[in-house]
């Protein structure tokens, strides 16, 4: 499998190209530029290399079996490949495991936007009871008993011992290298002047996307997402009706996030943005996902309820689902037009899935070795 190349500050990038037109003043579709890098967590090859190891290391979880890579597997679109993530042993997650491809460009992380940086997202996932379930002090002590990590943290961060906050910084730096290579994307090559890069069907689909289908109302800009929140009436995942553990974990999640008792007791589905704002009008709203790399990141929606892009397009063509508040209307696209739209969505992905091999992880020292 080919390795991902770290994208560091100052690296050469494809010059950003933009579509020549935009709908109603919305940001036009464009080629992604270099991801934003926070001033308090600058990139370096050494930091990225450390973050890569930590991303794959189960020591940053409760029982040692749930590293970041457990729910974000490169050969499964950097997700789990299933409709709903499996969650920490003994629980069952209630959401689709989002790909981390291009997460470097998101201003808000998680489906309900509760994290505002990759650094805080890594911390939340590793410590979340239905995700990594790791205790912070225990995870940090595990790192301090690994001589290679002691050396690497000192090199990268200048500390005598690994600090957990720096671990999240390193993981975030690594995640900022897991991004689309525009030279491998038919749509981006088309924008750069290669008129043969996209099929005729994909070009017709692009016209629909920017025009009559109205997709750019929410899916615009280089990320093909406005990063806002909508309730489009996505149906509940079938799994919730088949396994009581889904409902047990969901009800517990509602309870521990402090929703009112009447909401908790009646809760049979994910409330999305409501968990963050507690505003009734935000129930069922989720962040608009990027439409890049869809070929490799199925299934789709916050609960994985749609297996294929054809299913997604048919859902929008019908005007969304029951209870939606986003104002969707039926599109009345023909079967051929829906196929063209799917062809364009596929053209937003790289020609081959971006893969990465797991690194060799360092060993924990024995007490006798550590105490010398």
Please describe what this structure looks like:
- The structure is a single chain.
- With 372 residues, the protein is mainly α.
- Among the domains are: 45-179, Cytochrome Bc1 Complex, Chain D, domain 2, CATH 1.10.760; 182-233 and 284-346, Orthogonal Bundle (Cytochrome Bc1 Complex, Chain D, domain 2).
- Helix content is 33%, strand content 1%.
- A two-stranded antiparallel sheet has the order 1-2.
- The longest helix is centred in the last third of the chain and has 13 residues, at 244-256.
- It is globular, with a radius of gyration of 21 Å.
Mean pLDDT over the residues = 90
Low-confidence parts, pLDDT < 50 over ≥5 residues? 1-21
| Global Rg | 21 Å
Structural class: mainly alpha
CATH fold annotation of the domain at 45-179: Cytochrome Bc1 Complex, Chain D, domain 2
CATH hierarchy: architecture of the domain at 45-179: Orthogonal Bundle
- Number of E-state strands: 2
Helix/strand order? HHHHHHHHEHHHEHHH
Distance from N terminus to C terminus (CA atoms, Å) equals: 40 Å
Large-scale geometry: globular
Strand order of the largest sheet: 1-2
Q: What would CATH call the homologous superfamily of the domain at 45-179? A: Cytochrome c-like domain
Q: Can you count the helices? A: 14
What's the CATH first level of the domain at 45-179?
Mainly Alpha
């Amino acid at each position: 499998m080919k390795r991902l190349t770290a994208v560091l500050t100052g690296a050469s990038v494809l010059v950003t190209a933009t579509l020549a037109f935009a709908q109603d003043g919305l940001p036009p579709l464009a080629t992604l530029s270099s991801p934003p890098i926070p001033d308090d967590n600058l990139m370096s090859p050494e930091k990225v290399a450390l973050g890569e190891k930590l991303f794959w290391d189960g020591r940053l979880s409760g029982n040692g079996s749930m590293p970041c890579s457990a729910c974000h597997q490169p050969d499964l679109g950097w997700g789990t490949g299933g409709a709903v993530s499996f969650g920490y042993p003994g629980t069952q997650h209630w959401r689709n495991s989002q790909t981390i491809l291009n997460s470097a460009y998101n201003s808000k992380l998680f489906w309900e936007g509760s994290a505002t940086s990759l650094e805080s997202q890594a911390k939340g996932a590793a410590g979340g009871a239905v995700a990594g379930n790791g205790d912070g002090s225990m995870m940090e002590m595990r790192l301090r008993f690994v001589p290679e990590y002691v050396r690497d943290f000192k090199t990268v961060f200048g500390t005598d011992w690994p600090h957990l906050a720096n671990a999240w910084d390193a993981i975030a730096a690594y995640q900022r290298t897991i991004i689309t290579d525009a030279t491998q994307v038919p749509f981006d090559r088309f924008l750069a002047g290669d008129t043969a890069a996209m099929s005729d069907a994909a070009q017709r689909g692009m016209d629909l996307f920017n025009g009559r289908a109205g997709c750019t109302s929410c899916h615009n800009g280089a990320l093909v997402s406005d990063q806002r929140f909508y309730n489009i009436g996505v149906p509940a995942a079938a799994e919730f009706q088949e396994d009581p553990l889904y409902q047990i974990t969901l009800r517990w999640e509602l309870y521990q996030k402090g929703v009112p008792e009447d909401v908790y007791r009646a809760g049979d589905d994910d409330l999305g943005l409501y968990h963050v704002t507690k505003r009734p009008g935000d129930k069922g709203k989720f962040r608009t996902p990027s439409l890049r790399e869809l070929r490799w990141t199925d299934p789709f929606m916050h609960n994985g309820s749609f297996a294929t892009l054809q299913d997604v397009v048919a859902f929008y063509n019908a005007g969304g689902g029951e209870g939606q508040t986003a104002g969707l209307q039926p599109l009345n696209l023909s079967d051929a037009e829906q196929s063209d739209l799917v062809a364009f969505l596929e053209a937003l992905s790289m020609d081959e899935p971006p893969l990465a091999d797991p690194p060799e992880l360092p060993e924990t020292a024995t007490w006798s070795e550590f105490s010398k």
